[in-house]
Amino acid sequence: MKIAFFDSGIGGLSVLAEALRRFSGAEFLYFADEDHVPYGTKSRAEIVRLSLDAVGFLVSRGADAVVVACNTATSAAISELRGAFGVPVIGMEPAVKLAADSFGARPTLLIATPLTIAGEKLARLVGRLECETWSLPLPRLVEFAQDLEFDSPAVRTYLREELDKFELERLGSLVLGCTHFNYFKDVLREILPPYVRIIDGIDGTLNRLASELGGGLRLARGEDLPSRTTKFNAEDGVKFDTNLSVQAGKFGAEGRGAGGEQGAGGGNESCVGKNNAEGYGADGGKIYYPNGNSVEYFYSGRALDAAQLRKVEVFLKRLDAMREIN
Ligand code: DGL
């Protein structure tokens, strides 16, 4: 079974990286629309067209299901994608409901692209919540990520200036409504008061993928659902209970030369798993990972060359360092 992930660029790698930890024996495809990134400042019609092209390409490469690992493309094009293709298409929405359910005694701040924030889908979602929800478009953060500028002084200044527009001390949580923002969790953590939780929508998306495909995906050894951020302790809206035992250290635990099982303990132990590639495939942009998983990478329909694949490893390493920051 081939599962495809699609994003405008490198943001969706955060969802893929989690899938590589969680599942085993899977063939993944990853499509970054590098020729057209960013999506968040384009028109809805343009994103519909680009998304149809991207998913069409992935289906032609044998995808049995497609995860739209992009909040912007989901907001603009999910119904068109579902109508156009005969495979399951799983979208990604800002986790404002999870934030409201867990920390709703205080306001939620959603950061996302301008298109996601202006979208009808978000208005409907937020309209159903009791929780006070503020939103902030951060288009430059997508550009910083694409330029591999993750924690520079310019990034810090931009984020401080933008976030200072809000009464941060009143917040319960910050929702990352754009997958590119997962690269900046450390800088965001520095700026926010310590009790404000940072919530991404990754686990919810993968839970949906797993349930949509029934038994089609095998869990990696020791994995179980639900995992990571699905468990919040809502008591007074500020405590956070990460049930990490099911996530700990599965990358690098199996396969040649990948090292021993790591961090298999339970409780609130931090995850030490690493997202190490096992080797480059002979056929262009394919990488083999522990747990018997592989990924074929494409930039707007072109298979990645060796130098580009090495860069992907840099992104995955950065994401690995960010994943337990909440
Ligand atoms: N990563 C995308 C998202 O989740 C959008 C970034 C872009 O503007 O291209 O919304």
Automatic annotation (TrEMBL):
It comes from the Bacteria. The keyword Cell wall biogenesis/degradation applies. Pfam families: Asp_Glu_race. It catalyses: L-glutamate = D-glutamate. Its EC number is 5.1.1.3. The active site is at C70, C178. Substrate binds at D7, S8, Y39, G40, N71, T72, T179, H180. Pathway: Cell wall biogenesis; peptidoglycan biosynthesis. Gene3D superfamilies: 3.40.50.1860. GO terms for molecular function: glutamate racemase activity. One of its GO terms (biological process) is regulation of cell shape. Keywords: Cell shape, Cell wall biogenesis/degradation, Isomerase, Peptidoglycan synthesis. Provides the (R)-glutamate required for cell wall biosynthesis. Belongs to the aspartate/glutamate racemases family. This is Glutamate racemase. The lineage of its organism: Bacteria, Pseudomonadati, Campylobacterota, Epsilonproteobacteria, Campylobacterales.
